[in-house]
């Protein structure tokens, strides 16, 4: 039977948008602009470690800890470069500022193949749409720059909500914004625990984006798996 859906909620990073180039390359280019040579692979590795540590210490961009998300990101960027041997505080501050600005727009992000088309087709079928993303306040602008913002009734970020996926409260807030009961909603995302499991725990239908060749979670029935975004409408209308 066709799912009776009125609202689709969407994850963003690696579901609708992806980085245009590996983060290490972008950071290395920023360093080059300041006359510094730092290896992209080394920066990528340092970033992953620093980001993970900062997320553990100050979850959700330091929400409720008197820190702005802008400051949170500046600290991540500076510490990433410090781990790679950059010591000049003035240059660290300039690079943090430059990268924060860069990641606000279309310069660093691009739509995944099929994203714009899938959103357009869902909208044509009368489905309302919203975003539920563990992202900071820059997301509105990023979606605008990438030409996707107009598809959505609302954009709910973890910074705006004060809670991050997989916390059920961010999905409950989305249901409130959509004004739709959970059984008429489906969430689409690429993260098994934060998107698929978390949405289902609130009674929302869920589809997991899993490109071919990626490991499949055994607990996800095949009819909930999207090899590409283009498969979504066929599954909804089954």
Question: Care to describe what's here?
Answer:
46% of the residues lie in helices and 13% in strands. By secondary structure, it is an alpha/beta fold. It folds into 2 domains: 7-19 and 109-235, Rossmann fold, CATH 3.40.50; 23-104, Haloacid dehalogenase-like hydrolase (DNA polymerase, domain 1), CATH 1.10.150.720. The strands form 2 sheets. It has a 6-stranded parallel beta sheet with strand order 5-4-1-6-7-8, sandwiched between helices. A two-stranded antiparallel sheet has the order 2-3. It is elongated, with a radius of gyration of 19 Å.
Provide the fold topology.
Elements lengths: L6 E4 L6 E3 L3 H11 L6 H18 L1 H4 L6 H15 L5 H14 L6 E3 L3 H10 L3 E6 L5 H7 L8 E4 H4 L6 H11 L6 E5 L2 H10 L3 E5 L15 E2 L5 H5 L2
Parallel strand pairs: 1-4, 1-6, 4-5, 6-7, 7-8
Antiparallel strand pairs: 2-3
Helix pairs in contact: 1-2, 2-4, 4-5
Q: Give the terminus-to-terminus CA distance.
A: 6 Å
Average pLDDT, all residues: 94
The main pleated sheet reads as: 6 strands, parallel
Physical arrangement of strands within the biggest beta sheet: 5-4-1-6-7-8
Task: Give the count of structural domains.
Answer: 2
- CATH architecture descriptor of the largest domain: 3-Layer(aba) Sandwich
Q: Structural class, judged by helices and strands?
A: alpha/beta
Task: Please give the share of residues in helix.
Answer: 40-55%
Strand content is: 5-15%
Query: Rg, please?
Result: 19 Å
The topology string of helices and strands comes to: EEHHHHHEHEHEHHEHEEH
């Amino acid at each position: 039977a066709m799912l009776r859906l009125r609202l689709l909620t969407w994850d963003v990073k690696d579901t609708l948008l992806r980085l245009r180039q590996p983060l290490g390359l972008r950071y290395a280019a920023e360093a080059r602009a300041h006359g510094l040579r730092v290896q992209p692979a080394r920066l990528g590795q340092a970033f992953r470690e620093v980001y993970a540590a900062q997320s553990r210490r100050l979850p959700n961009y330091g929400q409720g800890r008197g820190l702005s998300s802008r400051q949170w990101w500046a600290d991540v960027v500076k510490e990433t470069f410090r781990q790679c041997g950059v010591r000049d505080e003035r240059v660290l501050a300039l690079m943090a500022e430059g990268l924060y600005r860069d990641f606000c727009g279309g310069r660093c992000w691009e739509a995944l193949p099929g994203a714009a088309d899938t959103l357009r087709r869902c909208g044509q079928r009368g489905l309302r749409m919203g975003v539920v993303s563990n992202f900071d306040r820059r997301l509105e602008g990023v979606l605008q720059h990438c030409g996707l913002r107009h598809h959505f009734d609302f954009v709910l970020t973890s910074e705006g909500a004060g809670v991050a996926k997989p916390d059920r409260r961010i999905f409950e807030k989305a249901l409130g914004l959509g004004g739709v009961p959970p059984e008429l909603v489906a969430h689409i995302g690429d993260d098994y625990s934060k998107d698929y499991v978390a949405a289902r725990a609130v009674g929302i239908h869920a589809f997991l984006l899993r490109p071919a060749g990626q490991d499949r979670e055994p607990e996800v029935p095949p009819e909930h798996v999207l090899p590409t975004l283009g498969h979504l409408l066929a599954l909804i209308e089954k």
